Automatic annotation (TrEMBL):
Belongs to the prephenate/arogenate dehydrogenase family. PROSITE patterns: D_2_HYDROXYACID_DH_1, PDH_ADH. GO terms for molecular function: NAD+ binding; prephenate dehydrogenase (NAD+) activity; prephenate dehydrogenase (NADP+) activity. The keyword Oxidoreductase applies. It comes from Geodermatophilus saharensis. It comes from the Bacteria. Residues 11-283 form the Prephenate/arogenate dehydrogenase domain. InterPro entries: 6-PGluconate_DH-like_C_sf, D-isomer_DH_CS1, NAD(P)-bd_dom_sf, PDH_C, PDH_N, Preph/Arog_dehydrog, Prephen_DH. GO terms for biological process: tyrosine biosynthetic process. This is Prephenate dehydrogenase. Keywords: Oxidoreductase.
């Protein structure tokens, strides 16, 4: 019989950047009983994290999570004293550029990650310990990723309340271009076009405009770093959207409705601790929900 990995054995977690993502992760992990240390260049963010039970220090060990703005990720460990045995992961919205910088410097010790959670707010005031509950969190399994470190990072994600989607950085970047980066551009385009339509149009804007443009309220620097950091896949995904817009409207509306309302259900699966099997789970649209000693438990969409 396989038993869950005991919580006692879990290493400390160090979070660099205690803003919306890092502050929320630190708070969720404190609530889950993990030892959490953290650092932020902003004293107000450090103070807020300390009030939530985070030990503020630059000496980090165990699993170290980089949660700084994307352009600052490559230099995030400058001035931080990281245990040489630590596993390092990140939460950046694009994975190939982080793999090329942090990953190249750390080799198999680095596990790229991306939680599919967050709001248009930013900074430590946007901290929400429930931010990751039930969310998908992509964790990169490259050929050089050390599997025991990937599993340690996965345990952190599971303790934060999220589900782990095993991916490669390239697959991740192509997928999120379609479901995150293009939606940010479309939200900006919708909002800009409505602005040109004038004050009457904006006065009459209601639910569909609010939902379609919500992320246009995000910090422009954050969105720009994200789409420019994933320019190739985002341009390709945008071309597919433009091709859809050229279809006859009834056909387009029916196709979109079909995808948005499909509910395939879920089937529980057990997956061996093996890179190929874990990546197959991610490609099938599934996720890991529990780590056990000899395998992980998760689900795939019901065929
Ligand atoms: N906001 C989202 O919706 C979202 C979703 C998924 C992933 N992400 C990714 O999460 C990361 C952080 O985003 P966020 O929304 O939490 O940003 P944020 O602005 O809320 O927080 C970033 C924090 O990092 C701190 N910081 C900056 N440089 C630092 C450094 N060198 N050392 C220590 N602290 C530093 C800032 O002071 C700030 O507190 C980004 O890489 C982003 O791509 C964001």
């Amino acid at each position: 019989m396989s038993l869950p990995v005991p919580t006692m054995a879990r290493p400390p977690v160090g979070v660099v950047g205690l803003g919306q993502l890092g502050g929320s992760l630190a708070a969720a992990l404190v609530a889950a009983g993990r030892e959490v240390r953290g650092w932020d260049v902003d004293p107000a963010a450090r103070e807020a994290a300390a009030a939530r039970g985070v030990r503020v220090t630059r000496e980090l060990a165990g699993v170290v999570v980089l949660a700084v703005p994307l352009p600052d990720t490559a230099a995030a460990l400058d001035g931080i004293d990281v245990d040489p045995a630590a596993t390092v992961t990140d939460v950046g919205s694009v994975k190939e550029p982080v793999l090329a910088t942090v990953g190249a410097a750390l080799g198999g010790r680095f596990v790229g990650g991306h939680p599919m959670a967050g709001t248009e707010r930013s900074g430590h005031a946007a901290t929400d310990p429930a931010l990751f509950r039930g969310a998908r969190w992509a964790l990169c399994l490259e050929p050089g990723t050390e599997l025991p470190r990937w599993l340690r990072a996965a345990e952190v994600v599971l303790d934060a309340g999220a589900e782990v989607v095993p991916v490669t950085a390239a697959e991740h970047d192509a997928a999120v271009a379609a479901v995150s980066h293009v939606p940010h551009l479309l939200a900006a385009a919708l909002a800009a076009a409505a602005g040109e339509a004038g004050p009457l149009a904006l006065a009459l804007a209601a639910g569909s405009f609010r939902d379609g443009t919500r992320v246009a309220g995000s910090d422009p620097a954050f969105v720009t770093a994200m789409v420019e950091g994933n320019a190739g896949p985002t341009a390709a995904a945008l071309d597919r959207v433009l091709a859809q817009l050229r279809r006859p409207w009834p056909e387009l509306v029916a196709a979109g409705h079909g995808v948005r309302t499909a509910d395939p259900g879920r089937r529980t699966v057990r997956v061996p601790l093996d890179r190929v099997a874990l990546l197959a789970l991610g490609r099938a649209g599934g996720a890991v929900t529990r780590r056990l000693a000899a395998f992980v438990e998760g689900w795939v969409p019901q065929p």
